[in-house]
Amino acid sequence: MIEIDARGLRCPQPIIELGKKISTMNKGDEVTLLSDDPATEPDLSAWSRMTGNKFEKKSESVFLVTKLSER
């Protein structure tokens, strides 16, 4: 499992780090994003709508992101 530790980073950096990593992944791959920034969940929601990928909140600071699109 791939993990991005973005704890301590503030908006928009966790999403930028996720975007860089997910662009190198294959469709169906999953990445765990660790982020303590309160803006991460709303940012992930908007990012998911724009990119066609999905995320699931596992805990307050842990998000599982699945690449579903080729973008």
TrEMBL record:
Residues 4-28 form the UPF0033 domain. It holds the Pfam family TusA. PROSITE patterns: UPF0033. InterPro entries: TusA-like, TusA-like_sf. Belongs to the sulfur carrier protein TusA family. This is Unannotated protein. It comes from freshwater metagenome.
